[in-house]
Design goal:
Blueprint lengths: L2 H11 L4 H20 L17 E3 L2 H9 L6 E4 L23 H6 L4 E4 L2 H8 L5 E3 L5 H14 L3 H22 L6 E7 L4 E2 L5 H8 L3 E2 L13 H7 L3 E4 L23 H4 L3 E3 L2 H4 L6 H12 L4
Parallel strand pairs: 1-2, 1-3, 3-4, 5-7, 5-8, 8-9
Antiparallel strand pairs: 5-6
Length: 302
């Protein structure tokens, strides 16, 4: 029973004298219980109430975007994986990003919750909270996401400016790599299991932009598990390891995906290079930095 329904029923049954007093005490207890259990007697602020002042971000890339938009002081919480810029680590943690405690979200009283996952956004909206699900795979979708987040936060001009800045930084990194030989590159998102960067995603586009050929461009999805046999056939000249494993076995005696690539040109030349997953595989405002980092590694003399 909702708080409003309980209140209505209570008023209808109220009687004079002590019975009336007892009934109103019961109504007060019902309202208090509703607040504790997450039933909200009043709707959360909508877009019509003005720009949100208490923003909860549950996706690392979008947390970085909000800070880059100058809205870090409006953040009231984060997911466990939201760790940049460093000051956000002082915020309360409410979950992993694709789940988490709805009770903890309610306690922070956000008037906007920014997430990636649509199902999570739907669950949050059922609490009468305003939730924004923003999904992006390609660079164009990422730049559009900056503008979507900025509009929802009430600063639309800043979103366009951020997209233009990052787009320009990537273009500059691309110009610096122009004319250089294009090495065959394999980007391992997880060097143990063999998840790699495939086609149709912003990391693949960054590799192309800074002068590399992605050997997994023929994969079935954006971040698939790639077969070791296929990777050996492609014989990459450079292997980027975003998981930081650098071939380290998950358990003693285990053979990881990267260890199986030691016979490739990259392996023989010592060109299995760890890269920062937090920089390169996040679709936030550091994509220009990611492009410069990739260009430097890709075109470094073996």
């Amino acid at each position: 029973m909702s708080a409003a329904a309980a209140s209505s029923k209570g008023v209808g049954l109220a009687r004079p004298g002590r019975a009336r007093v007892a009934r109103w005490l019961l109504i007060g207890l019902v309202l208090l219980a509703a607040a504790v259990t997450g039933c909200r007697p009043a709707a959360a602020p909508s877009a019509a109430d003005g720009p949100p002042q208490r923003i909860l971000s549950l996706f690392p890339s979008w947390t970085e975007v909000l800070c880059a938009l100058g809205l870090g002081d409006r953040l009231v919480g984060r997911s466990r994986h939201c760790d940049h810029p460093p000051e956000v680590t002082r915020l309360p943690v409410v979950g992993e990003g694709f789940g988490g405690s709805l009770e903890a979200i309610l306690r922070l009283r956000p008037d906007l919750v920014v997430v990636y996952d649509r199902d999570l956004a739907d669950r949050i909206r059922r609490l009468d909270l305003r939730a924004l699900s923003v999904q992006a795979e390609s660079l164009d979708e990422v730049f559009a996401a900056y503008e979507t987040i900025a509009r929802a936060a009430g600063v639309p001009g800043r979103g366009r400016a951020l997209a233009d800045r990052v787009r320009g930084e990537i273009a500059e990194a691309s110009r610096l790599a122009a004319g250089a030989p294009r090495p065959r590159v394999l980007f391992c998102v997880d060097g143990k299991s063999g998840h790699v960067v495939g086609p149709r995603n912003f990391v693949h586009e960054l590799l192309l932009a800074v002068g590399a050929d992605n050997v997994a461009a023929d994969a079935a999805g954006p971040f698939p598990v790639y077969s070791l046999e296929a990777a050996l056939r492609k014989d990459p000249e450079l292997i980027l390891d975003g998981s930081g494993t650098n071939g380290a076995a998950a358990v003693p005696g285990a053979r990881t995906f990267i260890e199986g690539l030691r016979t490739t040109t990259a392996g023989r030349r010592g060109r299995i290079v760890p890269v920062s997953e937090a920089v390169v595989t996040r679709s936030g405002p550091r994509l220009g930095e990611a492009a410069r980092l990739l260009a430097r590694i890709i075109h470094e003399a073996p």
